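Figure 3 (text version): structure tokens given as input.
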């Protein structure tokens, strides 16, 4: 067949499972690919492979003719270990060691008709194997890999150096380079894996691709990890209230509404209880804020009861806390199991310090919830990338940022930084603030907000990294579903991998008390 005959315009490619009737095509390909390694499987071996594990035998046909194939089996890998021999593990081609209850998909062989090289059929077969590995919940794909280019360099370097140089693209190997390009890593060098492989000097690479979605134990029908987390945010209208009961009624209204949408989380803004400030002396804003702090424990306890009653995790924006003669700005996490945690805002703004005497907290941690690990940073905190980096290092997947801003430029500082944190740390970030105004309340008169939820920036996510956003300066809710599996896949296979590629040999972020 000429090169002109194999142009993609004339192809009709189809990925499917192998059938016993495909043997003539398989024999033709393998005899052409392995003239020095014994050629094709026998018909009996080929039939046994299909009989034992039909799902693992995959091919690509073109206009009815098989032009590429991949042979696989499942093994209990601990039975064989890293020093196994090829013929031993594959049962001399009959796959007698195939174990449906094993934990690893073992790559027995993969081959492409020489006339079809250059159109990436091998990559399609590798992708099909990965999908099979995921669907069967196997922890990895393992294979022994030839390195036929090593023969030219055997006198000058050891196999380990050759492999490293191929990995760094200083050398090219027709098989090993392809396997690196398909996300396999080399576990070790095997000697005498395939003794007749003279081009590889009888060496082989033990290759592995890890299934990032592997579940070590069967997922529980109740209480298992959720792949989709629903988040609701409240863009809160600042309005005068006549008493504490009015405020709690407004809070419960939104909790009830978000619970009705089966949200896992509801996020309130920073200082959402500020309407109660009107009860205190406005000639002394610092005294008024300390007066407001008298309500904080009562509000937090009431919202904790709501979290249990409505079966929703509540991030209670933030409220002032006055203890040991110091004023803090504190966010509360009220879990739906009845437990509570808090985050003391680390970075008080110049305005908070000047008018109210707010001090920054001195602790930071990620919080476990029934649907994943989260972080909370209050407003100004998100403008310091180190804080979010430390939370990400603790396994945080969703960051909640309640804020209060009075102008659009102040809001945009929070928004832009929140988007940056989502990209830098490969996580979701939800932000919300308050709108409206509070006449005759000193230093908290006007509000500007546009609630939003941000994602990392890659193909699996919205093109602009914005999952959803509210209408600016209007009281409303925002409800979004967050796909947590996309984060898992991004961190292992993304176009860029910020967490993995950080140069920890050059720099790091460390909490000083650690």
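Below: residues designed for each position.
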């Amino acid at each position: 067949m000429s090169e002109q005959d194999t142009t993609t315009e004339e192809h009709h490619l189809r990925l499917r499972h192998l059938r016993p009737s495909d043997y003539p095509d398989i024999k033709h390909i393998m005899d052409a690919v392995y003239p020095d390694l014994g050629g094709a499987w026998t018909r009996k071996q080929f039939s046994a492979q299909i009989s034992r594990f039909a799902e693992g035998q995959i091919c690509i046909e073109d206009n009815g003719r098989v032009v590429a194939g991949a042979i696989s089996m499942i093994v209990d890998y601990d039975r064989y270990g890293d020093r196994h021999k090829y013929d031993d593990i594959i049962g001399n081609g009959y796959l007698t060691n195939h174990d449906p209850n094993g934990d690893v998909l073992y790559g027995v062989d993969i081959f492409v008709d020489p006339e079809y090289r250059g159109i990436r059929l091998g990559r399609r077969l590798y992708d099909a194997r990965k999908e099979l590995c995921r669907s069967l919940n196997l922890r990895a794909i393992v294979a022994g890999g030839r390195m036929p280019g090593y023969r030219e360099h055997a006198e000058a370097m050891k196999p380990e150096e050759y492999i490293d140089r191929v990995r760094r693209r200083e050398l090219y190997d027709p098989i090993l380079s392809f396997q690196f390009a398909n996300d396999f890593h080399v576990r070790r060098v095997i000697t005498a894996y395939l003794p007749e492989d003279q081009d590889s000097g009888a060496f082989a690479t033990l290759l592995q691709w890890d299934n990032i979605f592997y579940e070590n134990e069967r997922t529980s029908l109740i209480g298992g990890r959720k792949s989709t987390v629903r988040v609701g945010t409240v863009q809160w209208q600042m309005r005068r209230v006549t008493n504490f009961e009015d405020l709690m009624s407004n809070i419960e209204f939104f909790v009830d509404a978000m619970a009705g949408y089966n949200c896992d989380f509801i996020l309130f803004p920073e200082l959402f209880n500020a309407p109660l400030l009107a009860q205190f002396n406005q000639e002394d804003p610092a005294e008024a804020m300390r007066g407001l702090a008298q309500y904080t424990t009562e509000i937090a306890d009431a919202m904790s009861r709501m979290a249990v009653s409505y079966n929703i995790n509540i991030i209670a924006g933030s409220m002032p806390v006055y203890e040991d003669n110091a004023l803090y700005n504190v966010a509360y996490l009220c879990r739906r199991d009845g437990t509570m945690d808090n985050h003391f805002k680390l970075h008080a703004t110049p305005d908070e310090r000047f008018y109210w005497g707010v001090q920054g907290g001195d602790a930071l941690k990620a919080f476990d919830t029934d649907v994943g690990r989260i972080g909370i940073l209050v407003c100004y905190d998100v403008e310091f990338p180190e804080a979010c980096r430390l939370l990400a290092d603790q396994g945080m997947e969703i960051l909640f940022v309640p804020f209060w801003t009075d102008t659009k430029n102040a809001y945009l500082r929070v928004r832009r930084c929140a988007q940056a944190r989502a990209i830098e740390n490969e996580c979701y970030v939800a932000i919300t603030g308050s709108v409206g105004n509070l006449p005759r309340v000193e230093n908290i008169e006007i509000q500007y907000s546009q609630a939003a939820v941000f994602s990392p920036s890659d193909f699996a996510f919205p093109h602009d990294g914005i999952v959803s956003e509210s209408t600016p300066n209007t009281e409303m809710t925002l409800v979004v579903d967050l796909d947590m599996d996309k984060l898992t896949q991004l961190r292992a296979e993304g176009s860029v991998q910020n967490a993995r590629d950080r140069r920890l040999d050059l720099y790091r972020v460390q909490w000083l008390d650690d």
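The radius of gyration is 30 Å.
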